[in-house]
């Protein structure tokens, strides 16, 4: 008990001295102590409370007077405080009334300051946004006026400079989203413009090419005219043949060209003047800015390749007119002029390697097309115009830097074809001349007519010049006409050789080769066909021989003519000669052979009229009528041969006599003829005598002695053998060089003797022999046996 009291006092001291928040642990210790400790603690606590109350009462009693005094003072102060409150309230009211206006103005100032700050902020932001909006507005305006390249530059500035400054605003995001769409729109629009451009140049290619070719041709003509004028002062090597002076090439044309150049100086148009190239420039720049230049280049080249294939595809009827070729060439030239322009005004869109590749592809196609279509041309004038177009075409493209050597090589192929068409045309002209010719010597009534003829053909004959008019020239009308046409052919061939960039020597060589073809193939063929025609008689053949002789003599004038029109001096000519000599010699030989053939045919016709009575007992006493007609025909025919070269007439006469002799011999030995009487032999002998008389009369001068009579020697010896019946001499001298019947073949004699033997049996020609001299018949049989033995011996020896 005594122990717990101090503990309770300690607890009370802790409670009094401890903060109320920490009283819990102290109070808990009251309940953790001994039983009834709580009651004791409460008692102790009450005792402590009573002690404190007493102390408080003591203290209050001690301070009560002071408290009363203080209350009294406070009451006094309250009255003063009331007055002060009224005064303060009044002052406050008056102050509030006075401050309301200040507050209002202050609030206005604050509001204005806020507005000013906001305005400043807005101005600052607008200063950032306005350039963006202005650039975007500029972009829209550029889009509207189709300044797409500028628009792309504006977009680039927006993206790189302006939009990053105001990227936090929503309108900026909208712009950023729209820019790719605008770029795609620009690409589509520019590509559409490019397609329109490609379509436009496809349509205008022919106009561009036509203009370029015209300019190239005018330039070439102008240069040629200047060159010709410069050469005037150096003189010309003029050549006169029979009064004709070859007109200097280009002289009149050059003067007229120079005058036109002076009077009509037209503005030189280029591809850029005819076509607006801005779409392709713009599209190239646009795609380059967009970083897609390679795509654009590939697209452009692909489309142009397609257009090139279309341009290079000719119309099926192109070969029919020169306009078809001109349109074809104009389109190709226009295409490559555009490509050349693109090559020089752009960088990378078209390269030289690309244009060279495209040109090589095109050149191969062009050559194939021209080779095919030119083969259809049968008109030399059209082929010549085609050549001129190809030359202008090649010169035009060569001026733009494209190699054209293969085109000039092609021209050599076309030249051969041109010569072929010329040869066909001149073959027709030659045929017409031959058809229209009367194959009679040209009559000239006076000096004027004579000069007209020799102005066309180089003819000289001093003997004929001495004769008085009227007189006749030996050749027919076709000779000067043929000569003129050969010269016209040379002129026509020369036209093709011009502008081929070949030397005069080469041109001279080409002219000679083409003229050789005309002479050796065309004219020769026409002459051969003419000679073979059925209606050409002996008189015509004789005139043809005379004509070819004069044409042959004129060949040297043709050679001089070619040399002079090509301005080649005689000292520098190392070319082939003309083959006219051989041509006309061959034609003359063919005509001679035809004369021999026709003579023989005519002789055969007369011989077919022969009507011998092979069983006659006595001859008629005169030659057969058919033979006399034949001899008269031969006499008149050989009179026509007086203008022929001597050997030709002699050969023809000898050939005719030999053929007549052979035909008469064949008539005697004909296998169908079974019997021949002695009277028939005698009559046949009279005909042969007339043949011998004709031969001895020298129908053609120039034969020596009895040379012509030797044609009938076989017949004469055979008939003499049978007429004289000199078998003993024949058999005895057979095989001897001096034999009287050396030309009588045993087989021939045997054949004729057997025919006479058969006749003697049937017609009793030898009846008197049988009656009067039977030994004569035995002699015949003996002769037959001996002849047979001779024939058998000959066959065995053979």
Keywords:
Tetracycline Repressor, domain 2, 798 residues, single chain, Methane Monooxygenase Hydroxylase, Chain G, domain 1
Uncertain stretches of 5 or more adjacent residues:
233-266, 763-770
Span between termini = 200 Å
Strand order in space, largest sheet = 1-2
Structural class, by secondary structure, is: mainly alpha
Largest sheet: 2 strands, antiparallel
The number of distinct helices, counting runs of at least 4 residues, comes to 27
Number of strands: 2
The outline comes out as: rod-shaped
Rg of Cα set: 69 Å
What multimeric state do the chains show? single chain
Pattern of helices and strands = HHHHHHHHHHHHHEHHEHHHHHHHHHHHH
Q: What integer is the average pLDDT?
A: 81
Task: Describe what this molecule looks like in 3D.
It is a single chain. Among the domains are: 186 residues, no CATH class; 171 residues, Exocyst complex subunit Sec15 C-terminal domain, N-terminal subdomain (Tetracycline Repressor, domain 2); 174 residues, Dsl1p vesicle tethering complex, Tip20p subunit, domain D (Methane Monooxygenase Hydroxylase, Chain G, domain 1, Up-down Bundle). Helices cover 76% and strands 1% of the residues. It contains 27 helices and two strands. Helix 9 packs antiparallel against helix 10, helix 16 runs parallel beside helix 18 and helix 20 runs parallel beside helix 22. The longest helix is centred in the first third of the chain and has 108 residues. This is Exocyst complex component. Keywords: Exocytosis, Transport.
């Amino acid at each position: 008990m005594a122990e717990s009291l101090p503990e309770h006092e300690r607890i009370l001291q802790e409670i009094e001295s401890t903060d109320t928040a920490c009283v819990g642990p102290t109070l808990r210790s009251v309940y953790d102590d001994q039983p009834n400790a709580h009651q004791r603690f409460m008692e102790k606590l009450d005792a402590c409370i009573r002690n404190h109350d007493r102390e408080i009462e003591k203290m209050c009693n001690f301070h009560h007077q002071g408290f009363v005094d203080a209350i009294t003072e406070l009451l006094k102060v309250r009255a003063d405080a009331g007055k002060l409150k009224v005064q303060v309230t009044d002052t406050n009211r008056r102050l509030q009334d006075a401050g309301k206006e200040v507050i209002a103005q202050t609030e206005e100032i604050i509001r204005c300051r806020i507005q000013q700050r906001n305005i400043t902020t807005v101005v600052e932001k607008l200063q950032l946004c306005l350039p963006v909006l202005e650039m975007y507005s500029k972009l829209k305006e550029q889009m509207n006026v189709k300044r797409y390249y500028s628009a792309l530059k504006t977009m680039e500035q927006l993206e790189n400079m302006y939009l990053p400054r105001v990227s936090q605003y929503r309108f900026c995001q909208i712009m950023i989203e729209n820019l790719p769409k605008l770029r795609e729109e620009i690409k589509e629009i520019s590509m559409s413009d490019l397609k329109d451009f490609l379509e436009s140049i496809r349509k205008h290619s022919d106009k561009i090419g036509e203009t370029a070719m015209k300019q190239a041709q005018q330039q070439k003509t102008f240069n040629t005219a200047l060159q010709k004028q410069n050469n005037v002062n150096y003189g010309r090597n003029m050549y006169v043949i029979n009064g004709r002076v070859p007109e200097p090439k280009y002289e009149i044309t050059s003067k007229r060209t120079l005058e036109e150049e002076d009077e009509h100086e037209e503005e030189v148009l280029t591809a850029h003047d005819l076509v607006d190239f801005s779409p392709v420039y713009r599209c190239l720049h646009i795609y380059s800015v967009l970083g897609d230049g390679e795509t654009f280049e590939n697209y452009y080249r692909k489309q142009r390749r397609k257009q090139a294939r279309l341009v290079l595809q000719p119309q099926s009827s192109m070969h029919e007119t020169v306009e078809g070729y001109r349109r074809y060439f104009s389109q190709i030239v226009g295409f490559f002029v555009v490509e050349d322009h693109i090559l020089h005004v752009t960088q990378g869109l078209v390269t030289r390697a690309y244009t060279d590749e495209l040109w090589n592809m095109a050149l191969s196609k062009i050559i194939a097309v021209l080779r095919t279509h030119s083969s259809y041309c049968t008109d030399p004038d059209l082929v010549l115009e085609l050549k001129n177009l190809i030359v202008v075409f090649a010169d035009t493209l060569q001026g733009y830097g494209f190699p054209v050597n293969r085109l000039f090589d092609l021209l050599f192929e076309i030249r051969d074809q041109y010569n072929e068409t010329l040869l066909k045309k001149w073959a027709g002209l030659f045929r017409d001349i031959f058809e229209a010719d009367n194959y009679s010597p040209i009559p000239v009534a006076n000096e004027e007519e004579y000069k007209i003829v020799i102005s066309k053909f180089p003819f000289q004959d001093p003997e004929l010049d001495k004769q008085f008019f009227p007189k006749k020239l030996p050749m027919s009308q076709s000779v000067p006409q043929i000569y003129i046409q050969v010269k016209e052919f040379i002129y026509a061939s020369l036209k093709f050789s011009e502008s081929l960039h070949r030397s005069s020597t080469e041109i001279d060589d080409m002219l000679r080769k083409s003229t050789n073809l005309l002479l050796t193939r065309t004219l020769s063929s026409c002459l051969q066909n003419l000679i073979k025609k059925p209606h050409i008689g002996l008189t015509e053949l004789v005139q043809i021989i005379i004509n070819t002789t004069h044409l042959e003599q004129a060949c040297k004038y043709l050679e001089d003519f070619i040399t002079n029109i090509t301005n080649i001096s005689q000292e520098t000519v190392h070319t082939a000669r003309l083959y006219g000599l051989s041509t006309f010699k061959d034609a003359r030989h063919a005509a001679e052979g035809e004369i021999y053939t026709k003579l023989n045919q005519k002789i055969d016709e007369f011989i077919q009229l022969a009507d011998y009575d092979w069983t006659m007992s006595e001859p008629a006493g005169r030659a057969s009528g058919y033979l006399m007609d034949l001899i008269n025909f031969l006499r008149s025919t050989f009179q026509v041969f007086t203008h022929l070269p001597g050997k030709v007439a002699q050969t023809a006469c000898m050939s005719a006599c030999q053929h007549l002799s052979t035909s008469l011999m064949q008539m005697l030995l004909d296998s169908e003829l079974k019997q021949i009487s002695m009277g028939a032999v005698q009559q046949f002998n009279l005909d042969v005598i007339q043949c011998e008389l004709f031969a001895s009369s020298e129908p053609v001068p120039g034969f020596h002695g009895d040379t012509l009579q030797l044609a009938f020697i076989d017949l004469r010896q055979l008939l003499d053998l049978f007429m004289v019946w000199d078998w003993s001499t024949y058999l005895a001298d057979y095989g001897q060089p001096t034999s009287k019947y050396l030309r009588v073949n045993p087989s021939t004699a045997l054949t004729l003797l057997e025919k006479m033997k058969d006749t003697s049996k049937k017609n009793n020609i030898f009846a008197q022999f049988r009656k009067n001299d039977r030994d004569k018949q035995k002699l015949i049989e003996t002769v037959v046996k001996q002849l047979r033995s001779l024939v058998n011996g000959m066959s065995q020896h053979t």
